[in-house]
Specification:
9-stranded mixed beta sheet; 29% strand; 353 residues; 32% helix; 6-stranded parallel beta sheet; alpha/beta; homotetramer
């Protein structure tokens, strides 16, 4: 018998990310994990293992026919998100969807609308937003610690799998764009984007890409995405007017560093303007102690909280749509040799973010 | 009495770079260092020191009136290069000029033409090209070790002086562009460039810039230039079809790393194309032992060799002009919000590089 | 019904290491995982989770009464190893024991003797010996790649739990000593050890310790063990006469580096001996590509292989006894203010290692 | 004519360190650099260069005959320090001596005594003590920022020149011992030392050595010295009861890190003592901004200050003698296979440090 306090849940898709969802939902006290569903049932069966009571199926209908299932976590390819998530929403289930939310802005918006209509939780698994590092970054931006954000530079490169179905932007940029969406103030979200790329190995689409985003207030954000680099780098610099954060996600001990080294313009007597125009502050660096939590554990707890409290999760479907809007604008720029393309931010529902 | 075997030389400009020129020319057996010349004679006097026999002047005419001076090294601001270098060439002296060669392509080309007419050496001090690391990079590209160059990614950022007179592209890109010019094969030089930047501190010009260069054969090169970063990074990745070089100029021990990790497309039976299209090679990494030479010492020796052998130096005025051509194209792009702008490579002298 | 091809197995002790054993035994095709046993049955139950068919007990007798259990993996505190492992061996079960094998040489030898008498596998879980890095180190020593081992320097420090029951040597040195035992040739095992330590926080035993081991041939090995260091370091240098290996277990990408930089003495004419006595080779560095396997997976496969083939495992009980011999000698030295103490290597069974 | 405000000075010995002394004395406004003296006058001549007015000689008498010479800086091998420094002191000159002060405690004490008798400055060039990092370390110990020093761990290894005349302890330990002497409070100086080493390359003396020093209060200091390591490491950890400093002298940007991660024992109810005995503080890390000064410049300024103010320099002859005392004790230990040997601290002059 399922505990009444627990949310019955199923994982749809047991490929790359599914195992992590299974493990975290399976150890959460908030959930009762009932199904692992995959078109390849053998893969699902292998994954749950020989000693598990979790049921396995290759048919989504089996899952949705189970009244004890209140929510599903979808970790299938993005092209199938719309169909699966819609079916689950139509069946009255809350939905957690892997990034990116869907294959287009229109599809993502459709999911948002249906979830709204039905009063169901639609959450986007922007996992990075639940890491201690990104939560800290959001905090120091929000509370003014680092001042106004002036520039963001992110490098996400390694020898990655050259995906046959999607390009490197579609594969990697959702990470950075969801982090930006989470960390930047609402009024400093990207307004335009330029994208350039290259396909030196003949993949049929970009394997290397550079995205430059305009942010309000002459700020800039830049992403370097690369499947071909032999070295793995995951570093983001967030330059503020008062301090600068450097996030090195691969550093074994010092993931976040806050530098008190900044340049600011100062008023100077006219005759000395050339020499005195800038003030350089070279202060200490501080690396905050961060807890060592698994981000996905926080994701499933936030999903449970949103369901139980009937409120929007931190990374809701709207956040997923905003990420898709930048992705689509980037691809329009890419096809036009890097011209700057505006990111449309339609007021979907009367101005709510 | 000057040794007849030694080339009499003077240093013009004793600001940031002048001291290094003085030291290297002063210890070279090829040169007889006679003058330090600066509009601020006190600065020049302080620099040569209390125990020196090197003469000091604030007047270039003093230098050029000295028949024992055969060559000058110019380390003044770029805006004065044309005037000073022209005066020296007109007076029959060989000239070594700091990067960038001049303030515009037209000025640089003028210097090349005059030096050619008079049969004098015009050398550009592209110092990085004389480091053991860059010489090694040029070698592994030239001899096919790394295969065809597919991408170049360079990051040159630190908390630098915000220059009032020039932007960050003009300040830092000459380093990377001169390295690219030196390392890439002649037929793979940049054909177009897109540039975007930001000026968050109110300098009046870009303090952060991103340059994306198109290279023949769908290859790409990208530069990140930044005066505002609290961390100092000087890393260049050169991705080849067979191997990838990573140059970390700040690593205390392992500046160059050659990775045998690459992705290549492979022919696959039609029915398996999605799964087998790419081959991933993950082999060892090799870090070549490099000698510890000061690059500027090699620069002055190359200047001496070119003078004595009456032949073109490795980094001649033409190389300086090519760098200026990309710089000018980048600024045209910057003013047009990042559109891709062609780099003009006029056949200056019937096709000679 | 258990597959006849699978070895029925139970995990005894579900504290720090038990979860890892459960996970690896549970996903191995060689084993049928039947029990998780802990004096604290709730802890065991939490660990196997709500969706598991693995049985839980707080009574070892339950496990040994199950005829389908052929082997046990013991992950309890070292003080209980003798009793538990003996009971299992007496009941005819193969035994895998966490490091250290037992609480003393005498206890460890007792286990070896009993396992020998009964023809059962006694394996010591020297996990590090099954990492790709340590296997590579063993290989380059064995095949002569790095020449004769001249020195070993190992640093294993971090802000660790100050154990109330055992000192830092007993806690951390088994890692390094088991690695040394695995990597060094049989005839170059430690012959004597000196140990010094400090207890600045009042733990009642050493929280910082330095062990210096004499190896045959004027070679030396040194361990730095420290629970109080704010930084985490796990680096081992193995200096050979031809090459030197540096193993940085925390480096995200380059765990092993092989340096071709060595010093060797050379014969010189008598009159020049002062200047020419040494030859310095400064060659390239090579970082071998290593597979990314979980070591504990290889441990359980080796345990299965030894059981199925009825042969000694790579890290058998004798290896565990040898580690205990050095540990005991180190503690004798520690009590005598660091005097060098011989490691007794009795010929236990006619000379077999 | 020499400026009366300037101290006439000569450099004796123009080998490895002499050039640095020449450069720093030559650019200091406090000194008038008059001579470079070396048994090999050609070497001295090459060093001062073709454009210098500094006189060169191979005879110390020439230097001491020059009445305008008030002080000498001695950078010859340690075995000659006594003779040269004594001759200079006897001739009434202030003396700056390279580390180590002399070849034995007795010799060093002789120099101290003579300088005292004659009222002359005897300064030891413990260069590291004048780096911003070591000055900061001294400060945070002195002002209580890091609490009581509990342990020091220093690693100074690289592929160094195997010296034919002295072992690795004599070559490298003076650096660490002079730093310890400078940083530790007077009442926490080393009381005993154990030393072990190895000579795998047949140098005739230790090329690898480990020194363990007892400090008052159950504190410990440990030095790893190694000429054979292919990697260069210069790291010192100073563990305090409140904070821990980590000094990485080769880090291009973050030389000093102050960690707020410590373990302290706490009082606990008797029944819970096993679980609650220790408190772990895991706070932020702070890397102080340090100025970028050349240490040797500060050395020569301190030498000038001591001469002009007729007071003891920060690193006086007594500091040099204390370093020699630990060195001698270490060698006694080394010859006795690592037994702990007391460091004698005779009350040389009535108890003054």
């Amino acid at each position: 018998v399922t505990s009444p306090a627990r949310i019955g849940v199923a994982v749809i898709g047991t490929g790359y990310w599914g195992p992590h969802l299974l493990r975290n939902l399976g150890t959460s006290d908030a959930f009762d994990l009932r199904w692992a569903c995959d078109l390849d049932a053998d893969r699902a069966r292998t994954l749950v293992g020989r000693y598990s009571t979790i049921r396995v199926t290759d048919d989504l209908a089996d899952v949705l026919d189970d009244d004890a299932v209140h929510a599903v976590a979808v970790a299938t390819p993005a092209s199938s998100h719309l169909e699966i998530a819609l079916e689950a929403l139509d069946a009255g289930r809350h939905v957690l969807v892997e990034k990116p939310l869907a294959a287009s802005v229109a599809e993502g918006q459709k999911l948002v609308d249906v979830a709204d209509e039905r009063g169901l939780v639609l959450m986007c698994d922007h996992t990075y937003c639940y890491t201690p590092a990104v939560k800290h970054l959001r905090q120091v931006v929000a509370d003014g610690t680092i001042g106004a954000v002036e520039y963001v530079d992110s490098v996400r490169i390694n020898l990655g799998l050259v995906r046959p179905d999607i390009d490197v932007i579609w594969d990697l940029a959702p990470h950075d764009l969801s982090i930006l969406d989470f960390v930047l103030p609402e009024d400093q979200r990207p307004t335009a984007v330029a994208a350039l790329g290259a396909d030196p190995v003949g993949a049929g689409h970009a394997c290397i890409a550079y995205l430059t985003l305009r942010l309000p207030g002459d700020a800039i954000a830049h992403l370097h995405l690369n499947w071909l680099s032999p070295t793995k780098v995951r570093t983001t610099i967030i330059g503020g007017s008062r301090r600068v954060m450097v996030w090195d996600d691969l550093h074994p001990m010092q993931r976040l560093s806050m530098y008190d080294r900044t340049v600011t313009s100062v008023d100077a007597p006219r005759e000395e303007q050339d020499r005195l125009r800038f003030s350089y502050r070279v202060g200490d660096m501080r690396a905050p102690a961060l807890p060592e939590n698994e981000a996905l554990g926080a994701v499933v707890e936030e999903f449970a909280r949103a369901i139980n409290e009937q409120s929007a999760p931190l990374t809701d479907g709207r956040a997923g749509v905003r990420v898709l809007e930048v992705l689509e604008a980037a691809h329009r720029s890419l096809r036009r040799d890097g011209v700057m393309v505006g990111v449309t931010l339609p007021a979907l529902d009367g101005g709510r973010p």
